[in-house]
Design brief:
- The chain is an alpha/beta fold.
- It is built from ten helices and eleven strands.
- It has helices at about 5-20, 20-30, 30-45, 60-90, 105-120, 135-140, 185-190, 220-230, 240-250, 280-290, and strands at about 50-55, 55-60, 95-100, 125-130, 145-150, 155-170, 190-195, 215-220, 235-240, 250-255, 260-270.
- The strands form three sheets. Strands 3, 4, 5, 6, 9, 10 and 11 form a seven-stranded mixed sheet that branches. The chain has a two-stranded antiparallel ribbon with strand order 1-2. The protein has a two-stranded parallel ribbon with strand order 7-8.
- The two termini are about 50 Å apart.
Protein backbone atom coordinates (compact mmCIF):
# COMPACT_ATOMS: atom_id res chain seq x y z
CA UNK A 1 0.00 0.00 0.00
CA UNK A 2 1.26 3.56 -0.72
CA UNK A 3 2.65 5.36 2.30
CA UNK A 4 1.85 8.82 0.99
CA UNK A 5 -1.51 10.45 0.25
CA UNK A 6 -2.82 12.50 -2.65
CA UNK A 7 -3.48 15.38 -0.25
CA UNK A 8 0.21 15.50 0.66
CA UNK A 9 1.15 15.63 -3.01
CA UNK A 10 -1.41 18.39 -3.59
CA UNK A 11 0.08 20.44 -0.74
CA UNK A 12 3.58 19.89 -2.11
CA UNK A 13 2.52 21.08 -5.56
CA UNK A 14 0.72 24.10 -4.06
CA UNK A 15 3.88 25.25 -2.27
CA UNK A 16 5.78 25.10 -5.55
CA UNK A 17 3.08 26.88 -7.56
CA UNK A 18 2.54 29.65 -5.01
CA UNK A 19 6.21 30.16 -4.18
CA UNK A 20 6.21 29.33 -0.48
CA UNK A 21 4.30 27.87 2.46
CA UNK A 22 2.56 31.09 3.50
CA UNK A 23 1.50 31.89 -0.07
CA UNK A 24 0.28 28.31 -0.60
CA UNK A 25 -1.81 28.42 2.56
CA UNK A 26 -3.50 31.62 1.38
CA UNK A 27 -3.91 30.36 -2.18
CA UNK A 28 -5.62 27.08 -1.29
CA UNK A 29 -7.40 28.42 1.83
CA UNK A 30 -5.66 26.12 4.30
CA UNK A 31 -3.89 26.92 7.52
CA UNK A 32 -0.14 27.37 7.28
CA UNK A 33 0.38 24.63 9.86
CA UNK A 34 -1.59 22.09 7.81
CA UNK A 35 0.48 22.85 4.71
CA UNK A 36 3.74 22.55 6.67
CA UNK A 37 2.61 19.32 8.30
CA UNK A 38 1.57 17.69 5.00
CA UNK A 39 4.84 18.54 3.22
CA UNK A 40 7.06 17.60 6.15
CA UNK A 41 5.17 14.31 6.50
CA UNK A 42 5.74 13.66 2.79
CA UNK A 43 9.47 14.32 3.22
CA UNK A 44 9.56 12.00 6.23
CA UNK A 45 7.77 9.16 4.44
CA UNK A 46 9.92 9.51 1.32
CA UNK A 47 13.13 10.07 3.30
CA UNK A 48 14.17 13.00 1.10
CA UNK A 49 14.27 16.79 1.42
CA UNK A 50 11.92 18.43 -1.06
CA UNK A 51 12.73 22.07 -0.28
CA UNK A 52 15.69 24.15 0.83
CA UNK A 53 15.68 27.74 2.06
CA UNK A 54 17.99 30.16 0.23
CA UNK A 55 17.78 33.61 1.75
CA UNK A 56 14.09 34.42 1.93
CA UNK A 57 13.14 31.99 -0.79
CA UNK A 58 11.99 28.39 -0.51
CA UNK A 59 13.32 26.42 -3.47
CA UNK A 60 13.08 22.86 -4.67
CA UNK A 61 15.98 20.51 -4.11
CA UNK A 62 17.10 18.37 -7.08
CA UNK A 63 15.14 15.49 -5.54
CA UNK A 64 12.14 17.78 -5.17
CA UNK A 65 12.28 18.75 -8.85
CA UNK A 66 12.31 15.11 -9.91
CA UNK A 67 9.49 14.10 -7.59
CA UNK A 68 7.40 17.12 -8.57
CA UNK A 69 7.20 15.81 -12.14
CA UNK A 70 6.09 12.40 -10.87
CA UNK A 71 3.62 13.99 -8.46
CA UNK A 72 2.08 16.17 -11.17
CA UNK A 73 1.55 13.09 -13.33
CA UNK A 74 -0.09 11.33 -10.36
CA UNK A 75 -2.46 14.26 -9.72
CA UNK A 76 -3.32 14.62 -13.39
CA UNK A 77 -4.16 10.93 -13.59
CA UNK A 78 -6.40 11.26 -10.53
CA UNK A 79 -8.19 14.21 -12.19
CA UNK A 80 -8.73 12.05 -15.28
CA UNK A 81 -10.19 9.23 -13.18
CA UNK A 82 -12.56 11.65 -11.45
CA UNK A 83 -13.54 13.19 -14.78
CA UNK A 84 -14.29 9.79 -16.30
CA UNK A 85 -16.33 8.86 -13.24
CA UNK A 86 -18.28 12.10 -13.48
CA UNK A 87 -18.97 11.48 -17.16
CA UNK A 88 -20.18 7.95 -16.40
CA UNK A 89 -22.42 9.10 -13.56
CA UNK A 90 -23.96 12.06 -15.40
CA UNK A 91 -24.55 10.33 -18.75
CA UNK A 92 -24.65 12.86 -21.57
CA UNK A 93 -22.41 15.89 -21.14
CA UNK A 94 -24.11 19.27 -20.92
CA UNK A 95 -21.55 21.11 -23.08
CA UNK A 96 -19.29 20.29 -26.02
CA UNK A 97 -16.29 22.60 -26.53
CA UNK A 98 -14.48 22.47 -29.86
CA UNK A 99 -11.49 24.50 -31.10
CA UNK A 100 -11.51 24.78 -34.90
CA UNK A 101 -8.67 26.15 -37.00
CA UNK A 102 -10.01 28.95 -39.17
CA UNK A 103 -8.63 27.16 -42.25
CA UNK A 104 -10.75 24.07 -41.58
CA UNK A 105 -13.98 23.96 -43.67
CA UNK A 106 -16.53 25.62 -41.39
CA UNK A 107 -19.53 24.27 -43.32
CA UNK A 108 -18.32 20.74 -42.65
CA UNK A 109 -18.13 21.43 -38.90
CA UNK A 110 -21.59 23.06 -38.87
CA UNK A 111 -23.10 20.15 -40.76
CA UNK A 112 -21.67 17.65 -38.27
CA UNK A 113 -22.81 19.73 -35.29
CA UNK A 114 -26.31 19.98 -36.73
CA UNK A 115 -26.55 16.19 -36.73
CA UNK A 116 -25.11 15.96 -33.22
CA UNK A 117 -27.56 18.57 -31.93
CA UNK A 118 -30.46 16.59 -33.37
CA UNK A 119 -29.43 13.62 -31.24
CA UNK A 120 -28.62 15.72 -28.15
CA UNK A 121 -31.04 18.67 -28.23
CA UNK A 122 -30.10 19.95 -24.75
CA UNK A 123 -26.38 20.09 -25.58
CA UNK A 124 -24.65 23.48 -25.39
CA UNK A 125 -21.96 23.88 -28.05
CA UNK A 126 -19.01 26.24 -27.72
CA UNK A 127 -16.97 26.74 -30.92
CA UNK A 128 -13.65 28.56 -30.56
CA UNK A 129 -11.97 29.74 -33.77
CA UNK A 130 -8.19 29.47 -33.66
CA UNK A 131 -5.14 29.58 -35.91
CA UNK A 132 -2.24 27.12 -36.21
CA UNK A 133 -1.19 25.88 -32.71
CA UNK A 134 -3.98 27.83 -31.01
CA UNK A 135 -6.35 24.83 -31.07
CA UNK A 136 -3.78 22.59 -29.42
CA UNK A 137 -3.02 25.15 -26.72
CA UNK A 138 -6.72 25.27 -25.84
CA UNK A 139 -6.79 21.47 -25.75
CA UNK A 140 -3.67 21.26 -23.58
CA UNK A 141 -5.20 23.78 -21.14
CA UNK A 142 -8.45 21.77 -20.96
CA UNK A 143 -10.33 24.76 -22.36
CA UNK A 144 -11.85 22.56 -25.07
CA UNK A 145 -12.67 18.87 -25.43
CA UNK A 146 -11.75 18.47 -29.11
CA UNK A 147 -9.34 20.33 -31.39
CA UNK A 148 -9.16 20.54 -35.18
CA UNK A 149 -5.79 21.86 -36.27
CA UNK A 150 -3.19 21.75 -39.02
CA UNK A 151 -0.61 20.84 -36.33
CA UNK A 152 -0.67 17.67 -34.19
CA UNK A 153 -1.06 18.09 -30.44
CA UNK A 154 1.96 17.34 -28.27
CA UNK A 155 -0.21 16.17 -25.38
CA UNK A 156 -3.31 14.63 -26.94
CA UNK A 157 -4.21 11.80 -29.28
CA UNK A 158 -3.98 12.82 -32.94
CA UNK A 159 -5.86 11.43 -35.90
CA UNK A 160 -5.36 12.59 -39.49
CA UNK A 161 -8.85 13.66 -40.47
CA UNK A 162 -8.41 15.22 -43.94
CA UNK A 163 -6.13 17.14 -46.28
CA UNK A 164 -6.87 20.65 -47.53
CA UNK A 165 -5.33 22.36 -50.52
CA UNK A 166 -3.98 25.90 -50.02
CA UNK A 167 -3.78 28.01 -53.18
CA UNK A 168 -1.64 31.11 -53.77
CA UNK A 169 -4.15 33.78 -54.84
CA UNK A 170 -4.35 37.49 -55.59
CA UNK A 171 -6.83 40.00 -56.94
CA UNK A 172 -7.12 40.16 -60.77
CA UNK A 173 -5.77 43.74 -60.69
CA UNK A 174 -2.69 42.84 -58.65
CA UNK A 175 0.46 44.02 -60.41
CA UNK A 176 1.93 40.50 -60.21
CA UNK A 177 -0.49 39.44 -62.93
CA UNK A 178 0.11 42.33 -65.33
CA UNK A 179 3.08 41.12 -67.37
CA UNK A 180 3.79 37.57 -66.24
CA UNK A 181 2.48 34.31 -67.63
CA UNK A 182 4.54 32.39 -65.07
CA UNK A 183 5.76 33.51 -61.67
CA UNK A 184 8.53 32.31 -59.37
CA UNK A 185 8.81 32.48 -55.61
CA UNK A 186 11.68 34.95 -56.11
CA UNK A 187 9.29 37.37 -57.80
CA UNK A 188 6.92 37.15 -54.83
CA UNK A 189 9.60 38.35 -52.43
CA UNK A 190 9.17 41.95 -53.54
CA UNK A 191 5.39 41.86 -52.97
CA UNK A 192 3.26 42.05 -49.87
CA UNK A 193 2.22 38.72 -48.34
CA UNK A 194 -0.85 38.51 -46.12
CA UNK A 195 -0.24 36.01 -43.31
CA UNK A 196 -2.44 34.83 -40.45
CA UNK A 197 -1.19 35.14 -36.88
CA UNK A 198 -0.94 32.05 -34.68
CA UNK A 199 -3.60 32.40 -31.97
CA UNK A 200 -1.56 30.50 -29.36
CA UNK A 201 -0.15 32.71 -26.61
CA UNK A 202 2.59 30.51 -25.16
CA UNK A 203 4.35 28.87 -28.12
CA UNK A 204 3.18 30.46 -31.36
CA UNK A 205 4.55 29.25 -34.69
CA UNK A 206 4.98 30.58 -38.20
CA UNK A 207 3.87 28.23 -40.96
CA UNK A 208 3.89 28.50 -44.75
CA UNK A 209 6.08 30.51 -47.07
CA UNK A 210 7.25 33.72 -45.37
CA UNK A 211 9.80 34.90 -47.91
CA UNK A 212 8.15 38.24 -48.74
CA UNK A 213 10.07 41.33 -47.65
CA UNK A 214 6.81 43.02 -46.65
CA UNK A 215 4.09 41.24 -44.68
CA UNK A 216 0.78 42.20 -43.18
CA UNK A 217 -0.28 39.93 -40.33
CA UNK A 218 -3.95 39.44 -39.51
CA UNK A 219 -5.84 37.34 -36.99
CA UNK A 220 -8.10 35.22 -39.23
CA UNK A 221 -8.49 33.61 -42.63
CA UNK A 222 -11.47 35.88 -43.27
CA UNK A 223 -9.40 39.02 -42.73
CA UNK A 224 -6.68 37.69 -45.02
CA UNK A 225 -9.24 36.89 -47.70
CA UNK A 226 -10.72 40.41 -47.56
CA UNK A 227 -7.32 42.08 -47.91
CA UNK A 228 -6.39 39.87 -50.87
CA UNK A 229 -9.70 40.62 -52.60
CA UNK A 230 -9.00 44.34 -52.20
CA UNK A 231 -5.68 43.89 -54.02
CA UNK A 232 -3.56 44.68 -50.95
CA UNK A 233 -1.43 41.56 -51.14
CA UNK A 234 -1.28 37.87 -52.00
CA UNK A 235 -1.76 34.84 -49.77
CA UNK A 236 -2.02 31.07 -49.67
CA UNK A 237 -5.62 30.43 -48.67
CA UNK A 238 -7.62 27.20 -48.21
CA UNK A 239 -9.40 26.08 -51.36
CA UNK A 240 -12.84 25.73 -49.71
CA UNK A 241 -12.68 29.42 -48.73
CA UNK A 242 -11.59 30.76 -52.12
CA UNK A 243 -13.29 28.42 -54.61
CA UNK A 244 -16.35 30.63 -55.18
CA UNK A 245 -14.15 33.70 -55.72
CA UNK A 246 -11.95 31.84 -58.18
CA UNK A 247 -15.05 30.80 -60.11
CA UNK A 248 -16.46 34.35 -60.11
CA UNK A 249 -13.13 35.87 -61.12
CA UNK A 250 -12.77 37.96 -57.94
CA UNK A 251 -9.56 36.06 -57.23
CA UNK A 252 -6.93 34.55 -59.52
CA UNK A 253 -4.66 31.62 -58.72
CA UNK A 254 -1.09 32.86 -59.10
CA UNK A 255 0.64 31.11 -62.03
CA UNK A 256 3.64 29.96 -59.99
CA UNK A 257 6.08 27.59 -61.65
CA UNK A 258 6.14 25.63 -58.35
CA UNK A 259 4.49 25.86 -54.97
CA UNK A 260 1.23 27.42 -56.14
CA UNK A 261 -0.78 24.70 -54.38
CA UNK A 262 0.10 23.10 -51.07
CA UNK A 263 -1.60 20.18 -49.38
CA UNK A 264 -1.95 20.51 -45.60
CA UNK A 265 -2.94 17.66 -43.27
CA UNK A 266 -5.49 18.49 -40.59
CA UNK A 267 -5.72 16.60 -37.31
CA UNK A 268 -8.53 15.69 -34.97
CA UNK A 269 -7.13 15.74 -31.43
CA UNK A 270 -8.44 15.01 -27.93
CA UNK A 271 -6.78 14.36 -24.60
CA UNK A 272 -8.33 11.13 -23.36
CA UNK A 273 -10.96 9.09 -25.18
CA UNK A 274 -12.36 7.70 -21.93
CA UNK A 275 -13.20 11.23 -20.77
CA UNK A 276 -15.29 12.01 -23.84
CA UNK A 277 -19.05 11.92 -23.40
CA UNK A 278 -21.60 10.51 -25.88
CA UNK A 279 -22.01 13.84 -27.70
CA UNK A 280 -18.27 14.27 -28.20
CA UNK A 281 -17.93 10.72 -29.47
CA UNK A 282 -20.90 11.33 -31.74
CA UNK A 283 -19.21 14.42 -33.17
CA UNK A 284 -16.00 12.51 -33.84
CA UNK A 285 -17.88 9.65 -35.50
CA UNK A 286 -19.90 12.00 -37.74
CA UNK A 287 -16.78 13.92 -38.74
CA UNK A 288 -14.96 10.73 -39.66
CA UNK A 289 -17.85 9.67 -41.90
CA UNK A 290 -18.02 13.02 -43.69
CA UNK A 291 -14.26 13.14 -44.37
CA UNK A 292 -13.89 9.59 -45.70
Amino acid sequence: MPKTTLEQWRMFKAVVEHGGFNQAAQGIHKSQSSVHHAVHKLEELLAVSLFEVQGRKTQLTPAGELLLKRGEFLLQEMERIESVAQSLSSGVESELRIAVDSAFPSQLVYSVLENVSAGFPQLRIDIVESVLSGSNELLDNNTVDIALSSLPSNEGLNEEICQIEFIAVASPNHHLLEHHDTLTLEQLKACRQIVVRDSATAHSKDEGWLGAEQRWTVSSIGASLNLVKKGLGFAWLPEPEVQQYLESGELIALPLNRGGRRSVTFYLSFRDQDRLGPAARGFIGELRLKTL
